[in-house]
């Protein structure tokens, strides 16, 4: 199977989708237990939620499920949130802390090495290539990493998650103008809650690629799934009415980020 899908555009903005894929090779599927086969930790329908919101945007989407290997984790297995519950490069449990593998079928070090080569590396090679292509056009590139998660997961965080969770690793991964473009819309979106660099400060993708000094900016948007799903339980159905309302704000966010990127690109060219 193709492990990623790419759609090229001319915008300075790139949308990354590391967690919407649901493909699991048959041999790996047989090793999952019944709990794992629910694939509960998928970022359900997120690539559809963003579809068509920004003309000429580039998208890079992993088609494999995060239980195969998580494309938004450090390839060395280093925790993104030391001291807090999280899941690893190849998760051993779901977000509730419950095992997803059949007894004796947990991934081995050899499995990790193979999946890094066969799934993780090709996805990130594609993403890096698109960042370089877009930067060559504009002198700047903005990676907007698209995510969603259930709004109530006691194993990972206390209480109910805000609707918009914006992550920039405390401002390190992008210019303030790009961060503010997202924050300003989310903050005033009627009926929604938001936070900047709360429980989710940006995953490995955001932290790895976000190097504003080089002209590459990155920002993560983690959406609470209650904002666009009928229910945060199987079958995780897409709620078209909720999604339509949310999409107006996401379109505004992306448009403002694109405008901020083009302004930064112009300023950079003018300073040379």
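^ structure tokens above, recovered residues below v
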């Amino acid at each position: 199977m193709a492990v990623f899908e790419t759609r090229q555009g001319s915008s300075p903005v790139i949308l990354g989708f590391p967690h919407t894929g649901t493909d699991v090779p048959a041999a790996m599927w047989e090793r999952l237990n019944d709990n794992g086969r629910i694939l509960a930790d998928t970022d359900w329908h997120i690539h559809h939620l963003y579809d068509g919101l920004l003309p000429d945007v580039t998208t890079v989407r992993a088609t494999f499920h995060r239980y195969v290997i998580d494309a938004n984790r450090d390839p060395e297995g280093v925790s993104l949130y030391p001291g807090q519950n999280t899941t690893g490069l190849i998760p051993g449990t779901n977000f509730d802390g419950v095992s997803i593998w059949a007894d004796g079928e947990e991934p081995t070090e050899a499995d990790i090495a193979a999946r890094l080569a066969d799934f993780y590396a090709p996805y990130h090679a594609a993403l890096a290539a698109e960042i370089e292509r877009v930067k060559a056009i504009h002198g700047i590139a903005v990676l907007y990493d698209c995510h969603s998660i259930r709004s109530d997961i006691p194993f990972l965080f206390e209480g109910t998650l805000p609707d918009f969770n914006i992550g920039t690793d405390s401002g390190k991964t992008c210019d303030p103008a790009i961060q503010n473009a997202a924050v300003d819309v989310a903050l005033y979106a009627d009926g929604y809650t938001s936070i900047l660099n709360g429980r989710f400060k940006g995953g490995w993708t955001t932290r790895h690629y976000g190097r504003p000094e080089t002209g590459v900016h990155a920002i993560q948007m983690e959406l609470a799934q209650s904002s666009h799903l009928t229910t945060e339980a199987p079958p995780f159905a897409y709620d078209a009415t909720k999604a339509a309302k949310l999409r107006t704000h996401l379109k505004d966010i992306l448009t403002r980020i694109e405008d901020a990127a083009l302004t930064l690109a112009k300023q950079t060219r003018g300073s040379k």
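Strands lie at 4-7, 13-17, 58-62, 141-149, 164-167, 194-196, 216-224.
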